Amino acid sequence: MHRRACLFLLPALGAAIAQPAPTQVQLNGMLGSRAALLIIDGEPRTLEVGASARGVRLVALEGDHAVIEVAGRRQSLALGTSPARLAPAGPTVRQIVMTAGPGGHFTTSGLINGQTTSFLLDTGATSVAISQIEAERLGLRYANGRRVMTQTANGAVPAYMIQLMSIRIGEVEVRDVTAIVIPGQMNHVLLGNSFLSRFQMRRENDVMTLDLRY
User: What is the pLDDT of residue 148?
Assistant: First the structure.
């Protein structure tokens, strides 16, 4: 007579227990360009680029910033700042809506590599354009970029071509954006076609809508 085998599923055996999603992360130190010390919900973790811990993946290190990814969403952390709060995961936002201001210009605020700045939409600009004064305020190491000549209203001027880790407006983030840093002062960072080409643009009266394509 054969006995029927009884199978019991024990969640403690062979099954991973889901950890709660982290709520805040701080960049507390950097080990060259390959690893960083992160404080994840108060717990220190040393991660190499590409590694993960507690749902946080270290994507890249550049200067004094680290790019992390949590639940498919990326965020830039600056060394020595307060812990960054992580928004809960939600539907991916792929649209920017801007309203024309005085003079018919479309301006908005946003982030470059996690630092706040103001933007002016400029469909006539080949690349995102940043003044040297603003670039220095944002902590961009533009002098390490490629020297180029660019055409301005005052004629051809020397500039630096660099790659921005990210530009974020509202909930929409675009990564690896080409920008040029030019001498002088501008009231806004110009959002040129190195950023705008990622979007499908449409204008209805005083409203400009940008739908992210890729």
Answer: 92
In this prediction the pTM is 0.59
Question: What would the two tokens of residue 8 be?
Answer: 């019991």
Does residue 72 register a pLDDT over 50?
A: yes
Residue 200: CA atoms inside 13 Å, Cβ hemisphere, count? 6
Scan for tokens 């993960």, then name that residue. 52
> Which segments of 33-132 are extended strands (E)?
35-40, 43-48, 52-53, 56-62, 65-70, 73-78, 84-85, 95-99, 107-112, 115-121, 128-131
Give residue-wise pLDDT tens across range 152-185: 767 788 999 999 999 999 889 999 999 999 998 8
Task: Spell out where the chain has E strands.
Answer: 24-31, 35-40, 43-48, 52-53, 56-62, 65-70, 73-78, 84-85, 95-99, 107-112, 115-121, 128-131, 146-152, 155-169, 172-182, 189-191, 199-204, 207-212
Q: Taking the CB of residue 103, how many other CB atoms lie within 10 A of it? A: 6
Task: For the beta carbon of residue 33, count every other beta carbon within 10 angstroms.
Answer: 11
- The Cα–Cα gap between 135 and 140 comes to 5
Q: pLDDT tens digits, residue range 190-214?
A: 999 999 999 999 999 899 999 998 7
Rounded Cα distance, 85 and 100, in Å: 31
Structure tokens of 79?
A: 């060394």
